[in-house]
């Protein structure tokens, strides 16, 4: 039979039902299909050439151009293949010209190649005569001696350039990077290595789809996401989850701009809490007053006297036993009305949202550390108990339920940040949308309240889970309960995301967006093989 706790929460499981569920595959509720995960890869220094080669090969095959030309085109478009495809529709020649790419003139190159190697020629940079064998010609057809090219390459690399242009005046053609490497390595091998490093790092520095993991100290991973995945949250192999758009810690369903405002606001959070705890508002001018003496009759700088015990206005005189015109020993229902100053009301409002933000954040830390360790031990013991059937030994459902609990805690915590700014006039909404805002707010707060209730229920269920010595049917019952509630929690989280993205953010003057909801947390970056 079900426990009293289950009956109180509206969940009842009968032994006969459990037997039927066990025969039918442990009776799991079907969870909603998860959204498509982002194309997310973790790149190391070793796998960087492989990652770069993938995009280079795609462009080289698509346009039939050389590697250095493909690199120049990709850098021009911030390594965004969608941008290249869009521009390709306007014509390949125009696209290459806009990127500063000059295609090789086959007639010029053929003429240069047919010249006798021992024939002498004057370099137009140093004005020395050399045999044709020590001259090199770029795609644009400009030809100079190798010593002058090498000096030009050295100067460019020293200045930090990863794309080197022809040294002919007013020529914008990019030099062949293979030729740059070959000439530099002959005289300046260290400079050639530096150039190679610049070329590789351009994939990270000039790429909108690749960013370094913001871990401290740096873990050495760069994360690459698919084109169009700007608003997403990813988990680096080092374990850090972060927003790919703003590089802050994962903060959905709160938009990046709002999260930045909140972090700035939190700097003053301790001051606000101190003011609320240690000051009273003058009932006349509404300024904050700090008491620095023992007497509870306080006089404001505006001349108004007030009782420090209740904050009410009083007369200016008092005897050993009473304050003139005032008595507050009897409890009365507080009626703030217009007597509370606006600034103090704003501080109380901030404290309301901050407290809930922090409480759910603290619960997340406890449930991740203490509860997480306990559940992990139970799952390990269950999986190692070879006396039980294989289906019973599978404890993945408990791990998944715990993961969804942690995610829901973060969603709740961050939802209060969003609510503080959305419903306090901090974000500009279109004037004609005030009625829609009121309706959307009720919907949001209803989703938030339901999620809060089910998260507390799930936390209670997982904290009470005991699988080590439980009978098989009891494990089935606990699994059904945890799976059902965790699926409900996931659905409610998704409802909050949809409400914010589709009902609330659409009312704002400034465009904002949030990362899509993932029921099992941020997308995990897969390691890219070297």
UniProtKB/TrEMBL annotation:
<comment type="pathway">
    <text>Protein modification; protein ubiquitination.</text>
</comment>
<dbReference type="Pfam" id="PF01485">
    <property type="entry name" value="IBR"/>
</dbReference>
<dbReference type="InterPro" id="IPR031127">
    <property type="entry name" value="E3_UB_ligase_RBR"/>
</dbReference>
<dbReference type="InterPro" id="IPR045840">
    <property type="entry name" value="Ariadne"/>
</dbReference>
<dbReference type="InterPro" id="IPR044066">
    <property type="entry name" value="TRIAD_supradom"/>
</dbReference>
<dbReference type="InterPro" id="IPR002867">
    <property type="entry name" value="IBR_dom"/>
</dbReference>
<keyword id="KW-0862">Zinc</keyword>
<dbReference type="InterPro" id="IPR001841">
    <property type="entry name" value="Znf_RING"/>
</dbReference>
<feature type="compositionally biased region" description="Acidic residues">
    <location>
        <begin position="1"/>
        <end position="22"/>
    </location>
</feature>
<dbReference type="Pfam" id="PF26200">
    <property type="entry name" value="Rcat_RNF216"/>
</dbReference>
<dbReference type="InterPro" id="IPR013083">
    <property type="entry name" value="Znf_RING/FYVE/PHD"/>
</dbReference>
<protein>
    <recommendedName>
        <fullName>RBR-type E3 ubiquitin transferase</fullName>
        <ecNumber>2.3.2.31</ecNumber>
    </recommendedName>
</protein>
<dbReference type="GO" id="GO:0016567">
    <property type="term" value="P:protein ubiquitination"/>
</dbReference>
<keyword id="KW-0833">Ubl conjugation pathway</keyword>
<feature type="region of interest" description="Disordered">
    <location>
        <begin position="1"/>
        <end position="38"/>
    </location>
</feature>
<comment type="similarity">
    <text>Belongs to the RBR family. Ariadne subfamily.</text>
</comment>
<keyword id="KW-0863">Zinc-finger</keyword>
<dbReference type="GO" id="GO:0061630">
    <property type="term" value="F:ubiquitin protein ligase activity"/>
</dbReference>
<keyword id="KW-0808">Transferase</keyword>
<keyword id="KW-0479">Metal-binding</keyword>
<dbReference type="Pfam" id="PF19422">
    <property type="entry name" value="Ariadne"/>
</dbReference>
<keyword id="KW-0677">Repeat</keyword>
<dbReference type="GO" id="GO:0008270">
    <property type="term" value="F:zinc ion binding"/>
</dbReference>
<feature type="domain" description="RING-type">
    <location>
        <begin position="123"/>
        <end position="166"/>
    </location>
</feature>
<comment type="function">
    <text>Might act as an E3 ubiquitin-protein ligase, or as part of E3 complex, which accepts ubiquitin from specific E2 ubiquitin-conjugating enzymes and then transfers it to substrates.</text>
</comment>
<feature type="domain" description="RING-type">
    <location>
        <begin position="119"/>
        <end position="332"/>
    </location>
</feature>
């Amino acid at each position: 039979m079900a426990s009293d706790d289950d009956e109180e929460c509206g969940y009842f499981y009968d032994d006969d039902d459990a037997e039927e569920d066990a025969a039918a595959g442990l009776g799991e509720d079907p969870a909603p299909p998860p959204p498509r995960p982002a194309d997310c890869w973790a790149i190391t220094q070793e796998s960087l050439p492989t990652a770069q080669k993938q995009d280079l090969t795609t462009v080289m095959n698509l346009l039939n151009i050389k590697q250095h030309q493909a690199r120049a085109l990709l850098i021009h478009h911030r390594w965004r293949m969608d941008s290249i495809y869009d521009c390709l529709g306007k014509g390949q020649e125009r696209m290459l010209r806009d990127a500063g790419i000059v295609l090789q003139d086959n007639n010029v190159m053929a003429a240069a190649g047919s010249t006798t190697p021992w024939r002498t020629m004057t370099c137009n940079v140093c004005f020395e005569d050399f045999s044709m064998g020590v001259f090199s010609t770029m795609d644009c057809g400009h030809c100079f001696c190798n010593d002058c090219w090498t000096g030009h390459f050295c100067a460019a690399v020293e200045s930090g350039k990863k794309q080197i242009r022809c040294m002919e005046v007013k020529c914008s053609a990019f030099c062949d990077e293979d030729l740059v490497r070959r000439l530099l390595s002959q005289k300046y091998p260290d400079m050639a290595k530096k150039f190679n490093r610049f070329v590789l790092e351009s994939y990270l520095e000039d790429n909108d789809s690749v960013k370094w993991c913001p871990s401290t100290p740096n873990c050495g991973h760069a994360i690459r996401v698919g084109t169009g995945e700007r608003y997403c949250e990813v988990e680096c192999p080092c374990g850090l989850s972060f927003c790919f758009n703003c590089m802050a810690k994962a903060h959905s369903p709160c938009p990046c701009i709002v999260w930045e405002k909140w972090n700035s606001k939190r700097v003053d959070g301790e001051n606000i809490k101190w003011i609320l705890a240690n000051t009273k508002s003058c009932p006349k001018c509404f300024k904050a007053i700090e008491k620095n003496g023992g007497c509870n009759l306080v006089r404001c700088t505006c001349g108004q006297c007030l009782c420090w015990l209740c904050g009410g206005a009083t007369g200016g005189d008092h005897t050993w036993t009473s304050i003139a015109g005032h008595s507050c020993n009897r409890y009365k229902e507080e009626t703030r009305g217009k007597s509370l100053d606006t600034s103090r009301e704003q501080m109380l409002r901030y404290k309301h949202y901050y407290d809930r933000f922090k409480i759910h954040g603290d619960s997340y830390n406890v449930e991740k550390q203490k509860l997480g360790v306990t559940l992990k031990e139970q799952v390990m013991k269950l999986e190692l108990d070879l006396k039980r059937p294989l289906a019973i030994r599978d404890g993945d459902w408990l791990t998944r339920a715990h993961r969804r609990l942690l995610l829901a805690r973060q969603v709740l915590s961050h939802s209060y940040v969003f609510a503080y700014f959305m419903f306090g006039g901090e974000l500009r909404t279109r004037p004609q949308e005030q009625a829609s805002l009121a309706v959307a707010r009720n919907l949001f707060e209803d989703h938030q309240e339901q999620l809060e209730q089910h998260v507390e229920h799930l936390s209670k269920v997982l904290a009470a889970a005991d699988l080590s010595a439980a009978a098989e049917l009891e494990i089935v019952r606990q699994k059904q309960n945890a799976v059902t509630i965790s699926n409900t929690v996931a659905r409610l989280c998704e409802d909050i995301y949809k409400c914010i993205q589709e009902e609330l953010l659409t009312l704002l003057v400034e465009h904002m967006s949030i990362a899509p909801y993932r029921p099992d947390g941020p997308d995990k970056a897969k390691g890219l093989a070297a």
